[in-house]
Request: fold
Amino acid sequence: MDKSLRLSETSTCFSSLETKCLILLLKGYSLKLIADIMHLEPRTVEYYICSMKQKLKVKTKFELILLVAQTRFAEYVKSADLELE
Reply:
């Protein structure tokens, strides 16, 4: 099953790991906590965030969060009790 994320019909897809990272980021988790939850190194989480920023053509993590927060995906994250494993 494909667990990638597409923010809109014209957007670039995020991988399933990028999507999990984004969900936790939107929930306000720190990079270290995201890494612990996902059983990754913090540097790997930073890489996923950098990749998502490049795909959405934003420069900062704050801009990434603001842009995604304006989508229906942000509503989905707020309302869902997501299983991330």
Observations:
- Residues 27 and 77 are 8 Å apart (CA to CA).
- The longest strand covers residues 5-6.
- The two ends are 14 Å apart (CA to CA).
- The mean pLDDT is 81.
